[in-house]
Write a structure and sequence with these properties.
The structure is a homodimer of 359-residue chains. The first copy, chain A, is of the alpha/beta class. In chain A, 43% of the residues lie in helices and 19% in strands. Chain A has three domains: 44 residues, 434 Repressor (Amino-terminal Domain) (Orthogonal Bundle); 141 residues, Response regulator (Rossmann fold), CATH 3.40.50.2300; 136 residues, Response regulator (Rossmann fold, 3-Layer(aba) Sandwich), CATH 3.40.50. In chain A, the strands form two sheets. A six-stranded parallel sheet of chain A has the order 3-2-4-5-6-12, with helices on both faces. A six-stranded mixed sheet of chain A has the order 8-7-9-10-11-13, with helices on both faces. Chain A is elongated, with a radius of gyration of 26 Å. The two termini of chain A are 33 Å apart.
Chain lengths: 359, 359
């Protein structure tokens, strides 16, 4: 039998007893107040070190009663898209800290337009933020904004994709290289050793994919393929993000041209474009691997036109990003720099137990 | 752009304004105090209903300043086993509620001995617990103890395996039937259509496996096999839990007898018994699927002798079980009855992102 008590935390009284000084002296040392002899201070500090004392920064921060403005810079998006879950997490973290005066202001940018990021960043700058959550765009515009923040000692957190060279306070997102490598392993386990050709679908706009995450996932995936399936050809199908009108004929043309392709993968969150095509056309013999628990992907999982999705806790990424800013700025607590989300593999059998929206 | 504020919670002042009564009247209604006219009470209650008001039970409970004793009834286990993570979660939830006077007392029972459960339960009974977390043993002994608790209105939570007929306050664990079914799907995706015979390893003691969880996982697995692979034979290898001495020769004899078997699965947390055998004997051509992130299993994942593990957040099960008791008993909050853990599929590539010990 063992027992544990909620009072197993250390109290000022205990510190005083251990140091052989009065409670008042301990209190004066803890709050850096005068009228403590050097000897008494040394005794108390030795005990604090011994017990690894964590001061109650929460109470101190409350007493300080300051207002804090946090800002976020997110990609513009539809309702119910991947980013909506990120937003819910960001908001919930603010609402859960009702004892403090926190505000969160969100601005959006176009993922394919560097100047759009700079404009939204300018609007954030004008808010005089105490801290910022950023989904990085391309390196140059992201770095330009972050340098300004750093010059003013304004901490920022990267969400979704990391740019370690810019040295954010923290990063929350998946390890994209590993994620693509892992996707390759599961995907090829299903495709089997005899697959000669597989389809990689990319959604492009202005000649590129939406995010660094997607680029890096592909790098990881291709590394897996080169190592273990050097003879399997990866054929790309590029669709334009601008509209769904042309998808049907582009996909049909691709499949006509590659009648041996039965296994498809994508690193964007819209695997459903292929899944819904298979469904509309009654194609049952195809296997599809994608990313993210967005509504239309989930419907395809249920219908059997998507076999696997990798999910990445968008809600938690949002929640933890704000929490990192709060802990660092308000509570003066140490924050872990690199925070990889789990690589969750979801199928028709287990997706219902995955909670994208956590409480 | 949107903004959210931590003050977006409703205040008593707002309720007063909306109801057209004084703050004092709202306060008297909220605390069920006298001297409120029927008309004023009705107005306030209408507003409370409209805004779905949640009273601050935390502050009320603190003011009440009572002591609470929670107890747990867990299977006896080695250090660093699966249950160790459950215990860490149970303890952390108590330590995180340092504002309250909570104690947690844990008693252990032998999973293969009904009378051992009854003896440990008796010891818990003597502590006059306010609430109990129970890992169910067989139906009769579990029910006998729970009936006594129910007669005294002492709430209890089931952890790991559920017995819904006994009607616990809450349950935290995996959906074992679905878990076994899911395991079957991934396992056979790897084994391929041509697998004619696969090995199911069971650890037995006194003629049975350790838990209802393991039994149900097997039911789910066999359902999958019967539906999709009716011609694939499932051959059982039973090992005795009492000691590892005999394992080597039993496994060797089995494999000699079934030279075509290359795919092995187990629903207990000791897949490493087979994994370490493969490693010791330099057998590279075997595939193994198991459960739980215990140390020796993880080592086999790294070495490549286990391909897949299903993990089930033991830390979170422990934490959430105590939290459910706390919310129900201390804060008088509603608690969700059935709480399935995610079915996490882990491989050498993604296990490092799975956090068994959460903070």
């Amino acid at each position: 039998m063992w027992e544990v008590h909620s009072s197993d935390k250390i109290r000022i009284k205990d510190i005083a007893e251990r140091s052989g000084v009065s409670v008042g002296t301990v209190d004066r040392v803890l709050h850096n107040r005068p009228n403590v002899s050097g000897k008494a201070r040394a005794k108390v500090e030795a005990v604090l070190k011994e017990i690894n004392y964590q001061p109650n920064m929460y109470a101190s921060a409350l007493a300080y009663n300051r207002k804090y403005t946090f800002c976020c810079l997110l990609p513009d998006h539809d309702r119910n898209a991947y980013w909506t879950n990120v937003e819910k997490g960001l908001q919930q973290c603010i609402l859960n800290r009702g004892d403090f005066h926190l505000s969160l202001i969100t601005e959006y940018y176009d993922q394919f337009e560097g100047s759009s990021f700079a404009v939204a960043a300018e609007r954030i700058w004008d808010k005089k933020p105490d801290g910022v959550v950023i989904v990085p765009q391309n390196f140059d515009v992201t770095q330009a904004f972050c340098r300004r923040l750093q010059e003013q000692d304004i901490p920022f957190v990267f969400l979704d994709s990391n740019v370690p060279e810019i040295e954010p306070l923290a990063f929350f997102g998946q390890d994209s290289l590993k994620s693509g490598y892992f996707a390759g392993r599961i995907f090829m386990m299903q495709a089997g050793e005899h697959a000669r050709r597989i389809l990689l679908m990319k959604l492009m706009s202005k000649g590129r994919v939406a995010s660094r995450q997607q680029e890096y996932r592909e790098v990881g995936f291709r590394e897996y393929m080169t190592t273990y399936y050097p003879d399997c050809e990866v054929v790309e199908l590029s669709l334009q993000l601008d509209g769904e009108d042309g998808y049907e004929s582009r996909i049909r043309a691709f499949l006509d041209e590659h009648p041996d392709v039965r296994h498809c993968i994508t690193f964007c969150s819209r695997a459903y474009i292929l899944g819904e095509y298979f469904q509309r056309n009654g194609l049952k013999d195809f296997h599809l691997f994608g990313y993210d628990m967005v509504e239309r992907n989930v419907e395809c999982l249920k219908q059997g036109t998507i076999d696997f999705l990798i999910a990445q806790h968008p809600w938690k990424q949002g929640y933890n990003s704000v929490k990192a800013l709060f802990n660092h700025i308000v509570l003066k607590k140490a924050v872990q720099q690199c925070n990889y989300m789990p690589l969750e593999l979801l199928t028709a059998e287990n997706y219902i137990y995955y909670t994208a929206d956590e409480k």
